[in-house]
Write a structure and sequence with these properties.
single chain, alpha/beta, Rossmann fold, 2 domains, six-stranded parallel sheet, 9 helices, 6 strands
Length: 225
């Protein structure tokens, strides 16, 4: 069955919001003379863990912690970082190459619609996507396959007609559970050794043109069967 679409994760894959996420929380911890450990910061799922992160910070700071002050300051710093944020290396070229090849692009993200569309509009790439699916529209976040199934439904495609691109192991697991082959481009905090379930592992989207990445993936899948 021919490939008709590429379905991208958003956070950490299209734009490196994983780095800005860690940076704004690190900034907030440092307001209290504390250091945040990146090894234990990131969740192994796509659900919202903001409340748990504030709970951990409050426990570390003690009685002087004020949630409202901390939250306002952290978001202001995050927004400053985001004003300078663009697409990850190679991604803009992939989107252009997909359109030239007649491939539709979609997003399957555990994040909310406002988050994803706002940042894509900021880099003027919202119109590159034929379908969008968000975490607030499904019952379970990645590694559950729900958001990928929703994206496929909106594209009107079977899993074999699309390829997923992900930056985390739980994202790869979600794509594979939905029946999609998957290219992994790990974000800066993800260990490449943990992407054994991916069909193709790249350091960057700039490593290969999109058509070459798809051909390499399809060749790997054919040899595996």
């Amino acid at each position: 069955m021919p490939i008709d679409a590429i379905v991208f994760d958003f956070d950490g894959l299209l734009m490196d919001t994983e780095s800005t996420l860690f940076a704004c929380w690190q900034y907030e911890w440092r307001q209290y003379g504390l250091e945040l450990d990146p090894a234990t910061f990131f969740a192994d799922h796509g659900g919202d863990v903001t409340a748990e992160r504030y709970r951990q910070l409050a426990a570390a700071v003690g009685p002087r912690f004020d949630h409202e002050t901390s939250h306002t300051r952290r978001l202001a710093h995050r927004d400053t970082l985001h004003r300078q944020l663009g697409l990850r290396e190679g991604i803009d070229a992939w989107l252009t190459q997909a359109r030239a090849a007649g491939l539709r692009c979609a997003v399957a993200s555990s994040s909310s619609e406002a988050w994803v569309t706002g940042l894509l509009a900021q880099v003027d790439r919202l119109d590159a996507f034929a379908a969008l699916a968000f975490g607030n529209e499904v019952s379970s976040p990645k590694p559950a396959p729900d958001v990928y199934r929703l994206a496929l439904d909106r594209l009107g495609l079977a899993p074999a007609q699309a390829i997923a691109v992900e930056d985390t192991p739980h994202g790869v697991a979600a794509a594979r559970a939905a029946g999609l082959s998957c290219i992994a481009v790990p974000n800066p905090f993800a260990d490449p050794a943990h992407f054994t379930a991916a069909d193709l592992l790249l350091v960057s989207a700039a490593d290969l043109p999109l058509h070459a990445a798809v051909e390499t993936l399809m060749g790997t899948a054919s040899s595996a069967t």
